[in-house]
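REQUEST FORM: STRUCTURE PREDICTION
Request ID: SP-0412
Submitted by: Lab K.M.
Chain count: 1
Length (residues): 256
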Amino acid sequence: MGMDMTSLYLRDIWSYDPHSDSWTQKKDFPFDLPAEAAVTIENKAYVMTFSGNLYEYDPDADSWRFLSDFPAGNRSGITAFALRGKAYFGTGSNRDSVYFAVYKDFWEYDPSLNTWAKISDFPGKARTDAISFVIANKAYTGLGFNGLSAPPIFSDIWSFDGDTGTWSQIQDFPEANSLIGLSFSNNLNAFIGFPGNRDLHAITYEYMPASDSWRRVKSFPSANSLSTSSFVINNRAYVIGGWGLEYSQQVWEFAP
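STATUS: Completed
RESULT:
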């Protein structure tokens, strides 16, 4: 999925095997595009489109199916995370040039019941293109911008405790007005990067929840560090694609 250099949305899906360093094509995403956010719960993926449709991918059957409509309707720039066997979607904008709005609402989706429930709003300012990551039993959401102009880009990040349903602010991201190009987390820490110099290599910071602190780590090597995708297998991160000087097909492995 994603977009190519002609601004066409792509439907192809691929599975990566780190042991053989090989890719296998799976069944294309068959529904309306673009996809705005995706999470995984156990062995299945859940994809939200701009239209507010939620779909499930079953890798064992290599099949897609429609599940439910997002209760709040169309949503661009929405963010999502999975926690305690449930999916959470929130923030974003409506892409309406006349009645444009950004949001701070959050919704919980239970795949076992195929039901939605509204939870506490995101405590920061309403925003679109926020990022989210999960470490242990907490999720984190923040950054993004107001949807009208960038800068300003927000620096605040908030943690969500799924057991109590409460939000708490953590230490701000250390770089102001940073257009985030990559983000991922493992079981211990999170990593966020942004293009910070002329060749667009992403300056990368590590967040350590034990000390609620950030430190700068090795920069992302590719000059195409905007709008990357990423996943983590066995504590190693894989960063895919992106653009900057060009649209990239490269995949980079990161060992924390």
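NOTES: The chain has no helices and 23 strands.
Reviewed by: T.R.
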